[in-house]
UniProtKB/TrEMBL annotation:
GO cellular component: cytoplasm
Gene: cysE
The protein's enzyme class: transferase
Name of the protein: Serine acetyltransferase
Gene Ontology biological process terms in this record: cysteine biosynthetic process from serine
Protein's organism: Pseudolactococcus chungangensis
Length: 197
């Protein structure tokens, strides 16, 4: 499927208020931002970086969603509401990911090269969650509202809080997927990660 078919399908599957394609096209800021990003990203990849940035800033003004033209976003991503959402330059967002308003896929200011999160297939990032640094959010993971995530999140778990902690493991429990064990493996305090501030 192409971008538009996957985009309409994602909106209809995730937004109970969505009724038909023309209405979605006219009223969904997430869909408009993702479509505009395709153009910005094309310009960025073809070395028209200033034009790509200008184009992305124009659509930021219209949709209140800021997506850096360097970010890699696959088809089939769903952005609901979207106001205040920010996606950084080196972020990766895979098919089936769901992002809500106020989400930040940002950097810490300490990393070079890959500086922003990777959100894998089917992950759900709730409103106002802050994902900082070159971390990975595993497939089908869920990040709770207003969580601050500075460490990788394993596949198929829910994390909440500041700093984010694993509170639920989805699917069958196994010794490898025990919640306490997973949390010990990824444990680092927000303050340790930020250099002890």
């Amino acid at each position: 499927m192409g971008f538009w078919q996957e985009a309409f399908k994602a909106v209809k599957e995730n937004d109970p208020a969505a009724r038909y394609n023309f209405e979605i096209l006219l009223t969904s800021p997430g869909l408009k931002a993702l479509a505009a990003h395709k153009v910005s990203h094309f310009l960025w990849r073809h070395h028209f970086k200033l034009l790509g940035r200008m184009h992305s800033q124009f659509w930021r003004f219209l949709t209140q969603i800021e997506i850096h033209p360097g970010a890699v976003i696959e088809n089939g991503v769903f952005i609901d509401h979207g106001s205040g959402l920010v996606i950084g330059e080196t972020a990766i967002v895979e098919t089936g990911a769901k992002l809500y308003h106020g989400v930040t896929l940002g950097g810490t200011g300490k990393d070079t090269g890959k500086r922003h999160p990777s959100v894998r297939r089917g992950a759900l990032i709730s409103a106002h969650a802050q994902l900082l640094g070159p971390i990975e959010i595993g497939e089908n993971a869920r990040v709770g509202a207003s969580a601050v995530v500075t460490k990788d999140v394993p596949t198929a778990v829910t994390v909440v809080g500041v700093p984010a902690k694993i509170v639920r493991v989805h699917g069958p429990a196994t010794p490898e997927r025990d919640r306490a064990k997973l949390e010990r493996e990824r444990h680092v305090s927000f303050y340790d990660h930020m250099g002890g501030i």
